[in-house]
Each structure stands twice: as C-alpha cells, then as structure tokens.
User: What shape does this take?
Amino acid sequence: MIFQEPVICRTPKYVVDTGKLEKPVKVALTNDWHVSKIVSEKQLRFLEKKLKKIKPDVILIQGDLFDTPWSLDNEKLVSALKKEMKLCAEIAETIMIIGNHDQIEPAHPAPKNHKEFESWQRPDTIRDWQKICKEVGVKLLLDDWVEIRGVRIFGFFEDPECFYTKPGARRGENYDAMKEKIRNLSKDGKLKARDGKVQWFVSHAPMSDSLEMEELKDFDVFSFGHTHGGCVPVGIDYVVDLLGVHGGIVAPFLKWFPRKYMRGRELLPNKAHLIINSGMVMTQDSAPKWLHYINFLKAAEITEVIVK
Assistant: This one.
C-alpha cells in the first residue's frame, strides 16, 4: 500500500484570543508525514492543496517526518522529503521540531536498559536534520525560540531520554525525563517569557501532566502531534466524535489516552490552549503490516490556528 489521498480531510480551525496581538497571526500545524517506501508523492500534492487554501503566516512541522531515521540514507526518500519541506518554506515561514521516529528506530521492543536503548539510536541524526533544514530553508528548533510577529515559539526537543521507557512508564514517553529537562531549561533561563508576547510551546508528543508544571505557566499555547488521532478510521471516528471522545481510542505505541490528548483543542487549568494535530498518515512502514490496509480510511488533518 502507498499513501492514499483521503476523501475526507479534517482542517479544524481554532481561534486563540490572548489579547496580546494587534494583528492576528495564522499558524498551520502539520506533522506525522512518515515518509517511507509506502508513502507516495500523493502526500506532497495533498499537503500543497491544503496549505495553499489556509494561507498561513507560519507553518509548524511537529515531528515524525520520516518513518525511521535510517531513511536518511535513502536518496529517493530524502528527495521526496525535501520537496515537502521546500513546499512549506515557499508558502510561509516554516519551523520544524524532531519527533521520535526521526531519531529513534521504533520497531524494537521496549529496551531492557538504557545502554541497550542507546545502541538503537542513530547518533548523526541531528546533524543530518540540521543539514536538510538549512538546504530547504526551514528553521529547526532544538530547545530554542523563534519570534514571528509577536508570537514567540519555543521548540522543545524530546531527546532519546524523553522517549526511553522505564518500568511502569507509558511506552514511548518518559514523563519523568521530560519534567526533569523542563526544570533544567527553566533554571538556565531558556523558558523565560517576554511581556506582551504570545508564548507558544511546541513539541512532538503530548506531555500529559507535564503541561501543568509551574515552569510552563507563562505559555499561552501548547501544540503537539504524535497521536495520529488515535488511529480510528474515518467513518468510525465520526460516530465516536458524536460521543465526545474525539474519535480516538489508542495512540501509537501508547496506552489508552484521556479525551484531551487525542486530537483537537482543550483548555488547560491555567487557561492555556492545548492543540493536538492528528497528522497526515496512519500507516507506518515500521507498523504491523495489517495496519497498512486501512491507511485509506484514515482522515488526514492539518490544523489552522488564528492567534489574536
């Protein structure tokens, strides 16, 4: 199977009114492209069509561009990826963060220890992504800020430690490691807010209760990918949507999610906005083969956010 152009595409539109901007800024969220041998150029045409319709000021690519980091050795796949990234950069200022599939081989069982986990990493991944981003004109954020028209975006880099699973932890996410890294970034002054600016925190995977940490209280918006909307095919998910659970049941490599961590927008206790984009594809080359045959049922999603 290759990427099947969806009959239905979700293009949800959210307005985030912070009261900090004189002129609205339109942000498009896209992620989870999972470029691989089973994803064709139909994805490129689909992406172009939807982004040109939205006409964003900023595009946030929220990780998992490649299905596995070993794809960086495949010239054909790298060329296909660059076309998609260049397209984004030509439409609007584009920012990228790195996902777990971009840096870690995900097809292995849970590691027995950290040393074994490290042996599954591709150590030159960051250098490869820096080179690609420079070539196509995309800004790569590795625990760093970029400011665009009053919107300050902090790209949180979930390094391998953040995806290393300790006994009892949710598979695929290590919240303790994420919290520790956030605390260290705060101590170093890297999360410091600026008055009158919209503070936006973007990373690949939703970080659960980490979002309610004191160190992140000054952020107005949090956005993520990773969940694929819960991997429930279109048709079924519309029925489930009517029941109020966002059409998702379980996300890749993780256990059951509460409603707010699947897809859509939620308001956090501190009044910040949490926005989850379910991404472009469900099919992954590294996923069980039976999943490939329901790829065409998956509704792709690009989210439009208007910040005021």
Observations:
- The mean pLDDT is 79.
- The CA atoms of residues 41 and 80 lie 7 Å apart.
- The radius of gyration is 18 Å.
- The first strand starts at residue 9 and ends at 10.
